[in-house]
Amino acid sequence: xxxxxxxxxVIVTCPGRNFVTLKITTRSxxxxxxxxxxxxxxxxxxxxxxxxVVPNLIGRDAGRIEDxxxxxxxxxxxxxxxxxxxxxxxxxxALWDILGKMAGLPLYQLLGGRSREGALVYAHAxxxxxxxxxxxxxxxxxxxxxxxxxxxxxxxxxxxxxxSTGTKPYEPAESELPAETIWNTPRYLETxxxxxxxxxxxxxxxxELLHDVxxxxxxxxxARLARDLEPYRLFWLEDATPAENQKSFELIxxxxxxxxxxxxxxxxxxxxxxxxxxxxIDYIRTTIVHGGGITHVRRIADFAALHQVRTGFHxxxxxxxxxxxAALHFDTWVxxxxxxxxxxxxxxxxxxxxxxxxxxxxxxxxGDTPGHGVxxxxxxxxxxxxxxxxxxxxxxEDGTMWDW
Length: 404
Ligand code: GCO
Ligand code: MG
What we know:
- The protein is an alpha/beta fold.
- The chain has 13 helices and 16 strands.
- The chain has 2 domains: 102 residues, 2-Layer Sandwich (Enolase-like, domain 1), CATH 3.30.390; 272 residues, TIM Barrel.
């Protein structure tokens, strides 16, 4: 009876950017937090939770994590999809957080304990041109990063993905209605290999380098890029082509041994099943918040382990510190860990979401606070009302709608 859920509250706040958080409270007063942020579609998840999930939670046993997951997934009849799975993830993570607090144990301990001292993370370097991107790689190396993602501007491309404007960190969701960007595949295919050629010249072979194509190439173009990048030994090439047609990855594999990562927009094990069991990828990016929580992502990770695919969780700033905290506990435990993406949250965000994870020497380390170790200052959160913002769109020069 102590574990009975007596309250579940959806908190929408915008400390620099929008976040949706679910806070569950038990009869004995233990609270748990789950991230429910879906960038550019935040209120859809808030409503799914508020209008359809919360009424089902009240009165239930917070300790029945698996059963509640099945209830919300199978029981809803309508399965999968980013909105549904993000909402379920929020409930799931909040319940794991509660379990940890009740047991007095950090989350990684509940999962099976530590498999490593810290989680290798990668930072985001970018620049308007190759030289600027290389300078940023140097800057992150000085900060201790062992792995760095690099993106640079492409001649003729307006507002290239991943490139910050001015001195601000990169933030794609910048306007109430989507910004229009222009994409040019030939220019990009020329530029990307030159970027990594320069980075290896400037920084040597020791640093791990990563790159995100962000779904913009056709399968045969992706195969060409993966082949052209081979000499620079990337840690991974991400989202080389849209992954709905999973067979297209066979084409990339046929032409190259560049390691491939996919899955930040996936939300279910069914989205990655073919890619994993056919060993068409090396890293799976689906993380806790968009993949139905710890309960479901654990299933994906175990399945991936059978096929020597490792985790490489999405960790952009649009995933809140609550997701990052939960993901880091998972990273600390999961046997087939690869890497964790890490863009810093702003001071404003960190003031609302205090947390006990910390960066040291290229890795993020979780603390030993019971649960996932991330909290919310609700009073402060209330000072930042929701500010509608959407992700950009991309078109080709002739106006054709493309993948952003
Ligand atoms: C990444 C991602 C992000 C996404 C963003 C969308 O690899 O970090 O591609 O930059 O674009 O999370 O909301
Ligand atoms: Mg990405």
